[in-house]
Write a structure and sequence with these properties.
- By secondary structure, the protein is of the alpha/beta class.
- The chain has a domain of 148 residues: Rossmann fold, CATH 3.40.50.
- It contains 9 helices and 10 strands.
- Helix 6 packs parallel to helix 7.
Protein backbone atom coordinates (compact mmCIF):
# COMPACT_ATOMS: atom_id res chain seq x y z
CA UNK A 1 0.00 0.00 0.00
CA UNK A 2 1.45 3.40 -0.91
CA UNK A 3 0.73 6.70 0.81
CA UNK A 4 -1.82 7.70 -1.79
CA UNK A 5 -3.75 4.55 -0.84
CA UNK A 6 -3.53 5.54 2.84
CA UNK A 7 -4.83 9.03 2.09
CA UNK A 8 -7.75 7.82 0.05
CA UNK A 9 -8.83 5.29 2.64
CA UNK A 10 -8.81 8.08 5.22
CA UNK A 11 -10.08 10.78 2.88
CA UNK A 12 -13.35 12.58 2.44
CA UNK A 13 -16.47 10.56 1.85
CA UNK A 14 -18.34 12.87 -0.47
CA UNK A 15 -18.40 10.36 -3.32
CA UNK A 16 -20.25 7.09 -3.69
CA UNK A 17 -18.98 3.69 -4.78
CA UNK A 18 -21.39 0.87 -5.62
CA UNK A 19 -19.51 -2.29 -6.47
CA UNK A 20 -21.64 -5.05 -7.98
CA UNK A 21 -24.48 -2.55 -8.02
CA UNK A 22 -27.93 -3.76 -9.02
CA UNK A 23 -30.59 -1.55 -10.57
CA UNK A 24 -29.17 1.70 -9.20
CA UNK A 25 -29.99 4.39 -11.77
CA UNK A 26 -28.35 2.66 -14.69
CA UNK A 27 -29.36 3.98 -18.09
CA UNK A 28 -30.05 0.38 -19.10
CA UNK A 29 -29.47 -2.12 -16.32
CA UNK A 30 -28.96 -5.00 -18.74
CA UNK A 31 -26.30 -3.20 -20.78
CA UNK A 32 -24.27 -0.95 -18.50
CA UNK A 33 -21.23 -2.40 -16.73
CA UNK A 34 -19.60 0.82 -15.48
CA UNK A 35 -21.16 4.20 -14.84
CA UNK A 36 -19.30 7.22 -13.46
CA UNK A 37 -21.28 10.37 -12.76
CA UNK A 38 -19.61 13.72 -11.95
CA UNK A 39 -16.65 11.92 -10.39
CA UNK A 40 -13.96 14.08 -8.81
CA UNK A 41 -10.88 13.04 -6.86
CA UNK A 42 -8.25 15.16 -5.14
CA UNK A 43 -4.68 14.00 -4.58
CA UNK A 44 -2.27 15.43 -2.02
CA UNK A 45 0.63 17.29 -3.54
CA UNK A 46 4.06 15.74 -3.11
CA UNK A 47 6.19 16.76 -0.22
CA UNK A 48 9.46 15.25 0.85
CA UNK A 49 10.14 14.06 4.38
CA UNK A 50 8.60 11.81 6.99
CA UNK A 51 6.42 14.59 8.37
CA UNK A 52 4.25 14.40 5.27
CA UNK A 53 3.76 10.64 5.57
CA UNK A 54 2.93 10.89 9.26
CA UNK A 55 0.10 13.27 8.44
CA UNK A 56 -1.46 10.62 6.19
CA UNK A 57 -1.04 7.91 8.78
CA UNK A 58 -2.66 9.98 11.52
CA UNK A 59 -5.22 11.71 9.32
CA UNK A 60 -4.16 15.11 10.68
CA UNK A 61 -3.63 17.58 7.85
CA UNK A 62 -2.62 21.21 8.03
CA UNK A 63 -5.09 23.38 6.19
CA UNK A 64 -2.48 24.95 3.93
CA UNK A 65 0.97 24.04 2.75
CA UNK A 66 3.72 26.68 3.03
CA UNK A 67 3.74 26.97 -0.75
CA UNK A 68 -0.02 27.03 -1.35
CA UNK A 69 -2.74 24.45 -1.88
CA UNK A 70 -2.30 20.98 -0.41
CA UNK A 71 -4.23 19.12 -3.11
CA UNK A 72 -4.61 18.96 -6.85
CA UNK A 73 -7.61 17.63 -8.75
CA UNK A 74 -6.62 14.29 -10.29
CA UNK A 75 -10.11 13.60 -11.72
CA UNK A 76 -12.45 16.45 -12.53
CA UNK A 77 -16.17 15.94 -13.14
CA UNK A 78 -15.84 12.63 -15.00
CA UNK A 79 -18.97 11.28 -16.70
CA UNK A 80 -18.43 7.90 -18.36
CA UNK A 81 -20.72 5.01 -19.25
CA UNK A 82 -19.28 1.70 -20.48
CA UNK A 83 -21.57 -1.08 -21.63
CA UNK A 84 -21.15 -4.76 -20.95
CA UNK A 85 -18.84 -6.42 -23.49
CA UNK A 86 -17.26 -3.19 -24.73
CA UNK A 87 -13.50 -2.69 -25.08
CA UNK A 88 -12.65 0.90 -24.25
CA UNK A 89 -9.31 2.66 -24.64
CA UNK A 90 -8.06 5.54 -22.50
CA UNK A 91 -5.21 7.72 -23.79
CA UNK A 92 -3.49 10.80 -22.43
CA UNK A 93 -0.13 12.22 -21.38
CA UNK A 94 1.61 11.10 -18.21
CA UNK A 95 -0.11 12.52 -15.15
CA UNK A 96 -3.39 13.17 -16.95
CA UNK A 97 -5.46 10.87 -14.69
CA UNK A 98 -5.61 7.62 -16.72
CA UNK A 99 -4.32 5.28 -14.01
CA UNK A 100 -6.29 7.08 -11.31
CA UNK A 101 -9.47 6.57 -13.32
CA UNK A 102 -8.86 2.80 -13.48
CA UNK A 103 -8.25 2.67 -9.73
CA UNK A 104 -11.52 4.46 -9.07
CA UNK A 105 -13.37 1.97 -11.28
CA UNK A 106 -11.63 -0.91 -9.48
CA UNK A 107 -12.76 0.44 -6.11
CA UNK A 108 -9.20 1.06 -4.87
CA UNK A 109 -9.76 4.81 -4.63
CA UNK A 110 -13.06 6.33 -3.50
CA UNK A 111 -14.14 9.56 -5.23
CA UNK A 112 -14.41 12.78 -3.27
CA UNK A 113 -17.52 13.70 -5.26
CA UNK A 114 -19.85 11.92 -7.64
CA UNK A 115 -20.76 8.25 -7.92
CA UNK A 116 -19.16 5.10 -9.31
CA UNK A 117 -21.39 2.15 -10.16
CA UNK A 118 -19.80 -1.11 -11.25
CA UNK A 119 -21.80 -4.20 -12.14
CA UNK A 120 -19.66 -7.30 -11.72
CA UNK A 121 -16.17 -8.17 -10.54
CA UNK A 122 -13.63 -5.54 -11.66
CA UNK A 123 -10.00 -6.65 -11.69
CA UNK A 124 -7.07 -4.29 -12.24
CA UNK A 125 -3.72 -5.32 -13.71
CA UNK A 126 -1.37 -2.36 -13.38
CA UNK A 127 2.35 -2.08 -13.83
CA UNK A 128 4.55 -5.13 -13.58
CA UNK A 129 3.74 -7.78 -11.02
CA UNK A 130 1.39 -5.65 -8.98
CA UNK A 131 0.52 -7.47 -5.77
CA UNK A 132 3.14 -10.20 -6.13
CA UNK A 133 5.17 -11.25 -3.09
CA UNK A 134 8.85 -11.25 -4.03
CA UNK A 135 9.98 -14.09 -1.77
CA UNK A 136 7.25 -16.45 -2.98
CA UNK A 137 7.66 -18.48 -6.15
CA UNK A 138 5.65 -17.86 -9.29
CA UNK A 139 3.54 -20.92 -8.50
CA UNK A 140 2.87 -19.72 -4.95
CA UNK A 141 1.93 -16.28 -6.24
CA UNK A 142 -0.61 -17.88 -8.55
CA UNK A 143 -2.31 -19.42 -5.52
CA UNK A 144 -2.06 -16.16 -3.57
CA UNK A 145 -3.53 -14.07 -6.39
CA UNK A 146 -6.40 -16.51 -6.85
CA UNK A 147 -7.20 -16.37 -3.13
CA UNK A 148 -7.13 -12.57 -3.14
CA UNK A 149 -9.70 -12.62 -5.94
CA UNK A 150 -12.02 -14.92 -4.01
CA UNK A 151 -11.15 -18.32 -5.52
CA UNK A 152 -10.76 -21.45 -3.44
CA UNK A 153 -7.38 -23.20 -3.58
CA UNK A 154 -8.82 -26.18 -5.44
CA UNK A 155 -10.34 -23.82 -8.04
CA UNK A 156 -7.00 -22.07 -8.58
CA UNK A 157 -5.23 -25.42 -8.77
CA UNK A 158 -7.42 -26.40 -11.71
CA UNK A 159 -6.38 -23.21 -13.51
CA UNK A 160 -2.71 -23.43 -12.59
CA UNK A 161 -1.52 -25.39 -15.63
CA UNK A 162 -3.30 -23.08 -18.07
CA UNK A 163 -1.83 -20.04 -16.32
CA UNK A 164 1.71 -21.42 -16.44
CA UNK A 165 1.36 -22.45 -20.09
CA UNK A 166 -0.01 -19.06 -21.10
CA UNK A 167 2.70 -17.12 -19.25
CA UNK A 168 5.49 -18.92 -21.12
CA UNK A 169 7.76 -18.96 -18.06
CA UNK A 170 7.40 -22.61 -17.05
CA UNK A 171 11.15 -23.04 -16.50
CA UNK A 172 11.09 -20.33 -13.83
CA UNK A 173 7.72 -20.94 -12.19
CA UNK A 174 9.26 -22.38 -9.00
CA UNK A 175 11.80 -19.57 -8.63
CA UNK A 176 11.13 -16.56 -6.36
CA UNK A 177 9.31 -13.72 -8.08
CA UNK A 178 12.08 -11.30 -7.02
CA UNK A 179 14.37 -13.05 -9.53
CA UNK A 180 11.97 -12.37 -12.42
CA UNK A 181 12.46 -9.62 -14.96
CA UNK A 182 9.78 -6.93 -15.25
CA UNK A 183 8.51 -8.59 -18.42
CA UNK A 184 8.23 -11.99 -16.76
CA UNK A 185 6.23 -10.56 -13.87
CA UNK A 186 3.90 -8.77 -16.27
CA UNK A 187 3.41 -11.95 -18.34
CA UNK A 188 2.54 -13.97 -15.25
CA UNK A 189 0.23 -11.23 -13.98
CA UNK A 190 -1.70 -11.10 -17.23
CA UNK A 191 -1.87 -14.91 -17.40
CA UNK A 192 -3.33 -15.09 -13.89
CA UNK A 193 -5.88 -12.31 -14.23
CA UNK A 194 -7.12 -13.31 -17.67
CA UNK A 195 -7.56 -16.95 -16.66
CA UNK A 196 -9.62 -15.92 -13.62
CA UNK A 197 -12.09 -14.51 -16.18
CA UNK A 198 -13.23 -11.32 -14.44
CA UNK A 199 -16.43 -9.56 -15.50
CA UNK A 200 -14.45 -6.35 -15.97
CA UNK A 201 -10.74 -6.34 -16.86
CA UNK A 202 -8.80 -3.11 -16.32
CA UNK A 203 -5.37 -3.04 -17.99
CA UNK A 204 -2.91 -0.27 -17.20
CA UNK A 205 0.04 -0.23 -19.62
CA UNK A 206 0.50 -4.00 -19.71
CA UNK A 207 -0.45 -4.83 -23.29
CA UNK A 208 2.96 -4.02 -24.74
CA UNK A 209 4.99 -6.40 -22.57
CA UNK A 210 6.64 -9.55 -23.86
CA UNK A 211 7.60 -10.53 -27.37
CA UNK A 212 5.42 -10.46 -30.46
CA UNK A 213 4.01 -13.94 -29.80
CA UNK A 214 2.98 -13.11 -26.24
CA UNK A 215 1.32 -9.85 -27.33
CA UNK A 216 -0.53 -11.83 -30.00
CA UNK A 217 -1.71 -14.34 -27.37
CA UNK A 218 -2.77 -11.52 -25.08
CA UNK A 219 -4.92 -9.92 -27.75
CA UNK A 220 -6.51 -13.26 -28.61
CA UNK A 221 -7.23 -13.84 -24.92
CA UNK A 222 -8.96 -10.48 -24.61
CA UNK A 223 -11.08 -11.33 -27.64
CA UNK A 224 -12.10 -14.59 -25.91
CA UNK A 225 -13.09 -12.67 -22.78
CA UNK A 226 -15.15 -10.26 -24.85
CA UNK A 227 -17.05 -13.15 -26.44
CA UNK A 228 -17.95 -14.18 -22.90
CA UNK A 229 -19.39 -10.67 -22.31
CA UNK A 230 -16.38 -9.38 -20.35
CA UNK A 231 -15.85 -5.62 -20.34
CA UNK A 232 -12.30 -4.39 -20.92
CA UNK A 233 -10.76 -0.96 -20.29
CA UNK A 234 -7.24 -0.45 -21.63
CA UNK A 235 -4.85 2.37 -20.76
CA UNK A 236 -2.02 2.52 -23.27
CA UNK A 237 0.23 4.93 -25.15
CA UNK A 238 0.44 2.48 -28.07
CA UNK A 239 -1.92 3.39 -30.90
CA UNK A 240 -1.69 0.01 -32.63
CA UNK A 241 -2.90 -1.82 -29.50
CA UNK A 242 -5.73 0.63 -28.90
CA UNK A 243 -6.86 0.66 -32.53
CA UNK A 244 -6.82 -3.13 -32.95
CA UNK A 245 -8.86 -3.87 -29.81
CA UNK A 246 -11.05 -0.92 -28.87
CA UNK A 247 -14.45 0.13 -30.18
CA UNK A 248 -14.24 3.50 -28.41
CA UNK A 249 -11.29 5.57 -27.21
CA UNK A 250 -11.39 8.53 -24.83
CA UNK A 251 -8.63 11.11 -24.42
CA UNK A 252 -8.07 12.44 -20.92
CA UNK A 253 -6.19 15.61 -19.97
CA UNK A 254 -5.76 17.29 -16.58
CA UNK A 255 -8.28 14.90 -15.07
CA UNK A 256 -10.99 15.60 -17.65
CA UNK A 257 -12.33 13.44 -20.49
CA UNK A 258 -11.94 15.70 -23.51
CA UNK A 259 -13.21 13.56 -26.43
CA UNK A 260 -16.48 11.71 -27.04
CA UNK A 261 -15.25 8.16 -27.68
CA UNK A 262 -14.42 8.56 -31.37
CA UNK A 263 -11.11 6.78 -31.98
CA UNK A 264 -9.63 9.22 -34.48
CA UNK A 265 -10.60 12.23 -32.36
CA UNK A 266 -8.83 10.72 -29.35
CA UNK A 267 -5.71 9.99 -31.43
CA UNK A 268 -5.71 13.50 -32.84
CA UNK A 269 -5.95 15.07 -29.38
CA UNK A 270 -3.28 12.76 -27.96
CA UNK A 271 -0.83 13.49 -30.78
CA UNK A 272 -1.44 17.24 -30.59
CA UNK A 273 0.23 17.37 -27.19
CA UNK A 274 -2.54 19.60 -25.84
CA UNK A 275 -2.94 19.93 -22.10
Amino acid sequence: MDWFDIFLKKGKKGGEVHMNAKSQSYEDDNKVAIQLTAVALDYPKNKKGFGRISEFLTGRFRKKAPNGNRFFRALDDIDLTINKGEVIGIMGPNGSGKSTLLRVIAGIYAPDNGSVKVKGNATLLAGVGTGFQGDLTGRENIMLSGSIHGFRQDEVKKLEEDIIEFSGIRDFIDDPIRTYSAGMRARLGFAIISNLEPDILLLDEVMSVGDHEFRKKSRARIEELIKGDATVVIVSHTKSIIKSLCSKVYAISNGKIVTDGDIESAFEFYESGKE
